[in-house]
Specification:
Length: about 425
Amino acid sequence: MTANKVTPCCGGAAPCREEPSWFAHMLGHCLDYAREAHAGGRPIVGILCEYTPRELILAAGAVPVCLCGGSAETIPAAEQHLPANLCPLIKSTYGFSVLRSNPFLEMASLIVAETTCDGKKKMYERLGERYSMYVLELPQKPLRASGLRYWEEELHRFKAELETRFSVRITDERLREAIGVMNTERRLRRALAELMKRDRPPLTGRQLLALKSSISGIPAELEALETTRATLDAREGPPEYGERVRVLMTGVPMVQGAEWVLELLERRGGLVVCLESCTGVKPILDDVREDAPNPVAALAEKYYHLPCSVMSPNEDRLALLRRLARDYRADCIVDLVWQACLTYDVESYAIKRLAEDELGLPFLHIGTDYAVADSARVEVRVDALFESVRPRGRSGRGTRPDLAHAHRGPGRDRQRKAPT
Ligand code: SF4
Ligand code: SF4
């Protein structure tokens, strides 16, 4: 995360037809906002995972900022302390702390994290040596009612910690207000994502990925989301978008700076119509009940049911992919797994079975890291995947007869399976 580096809203992935938007300079705007808030006495709170309810941080008067690292450049520094055979997301995030090069991290009064995957948990111990850390204990059996009860208790403990640390009282009223802000952000981002359901979406998956902020709830960001949605809603994408291979992408998060696989997919003739991961739609599909009598319980309910691969079993991810493949009329599923991410890697076989055996969609598992040096190998496999989709033709995509209405209509050929 290099806060002073300015990128176009699409990350340079496509010719830009837009006026410069807030998102074209998102990191710069976030940094200005954080500096001003910090100078005015508002605490900066770093977060590292989508299980953290930003609502509690906002209700404490603090600024929640995502600290996940997407740069390959900070990895060598991380490897001074961490094993090389670790997920690049963990190493990149930690590397910023070694180099002291993430201004948001250096401003943070507190970093909040959860007990998710083993690599992250152990990395937090090192991070906690230099920064104030608070680690939420996340139960990992989503079907257990006792797990949800424990998670709600954990959120109460977190709320109490924020109140003590920042000398503030988080009333139900403040919490409901913060829930309203986050629901607005989720609703606007959902509306943008839903534009990709069209035959000719008005933007690419890469451009959509750039329409989010490292800090939630900034009024200018919400305004920019609304303006962008209205502009794009009135626009039809070029005919060429209608001819591309519609990709449902799943797997690990692709944080800012680590989007190269998505960019490659779109360079080779795909259109990522849906990104299921934590940097895509997964965290924004459900809102928090604003009228719930117990707002902390409402937060616990929403966040506990995020279908991350650290959960066991994680049937909700399969159900979500079924729904997204149908709603976005996917031609194929691509599962991205960062090197050494065991939970997503093991779960990949279940996704392959879902894609090929149940949905009748070609499937590709891409295991890689932040190093673009891997791109030639990935390119060959992506080309083979798309070749297996194209012969079925526009009217024949979507394969299972029971799903045909949801895809491109009947009369498809029998699909060929992509190499994995
Ligand atoms: S993939 Fe899992 S561990 Fe990673 S940010 Fe999402 S919820 Fe957290
Ligand atoms: S991508 Fe996998 S290994 Fe990396 S932080 Fe997320 S869950 Fe952990």
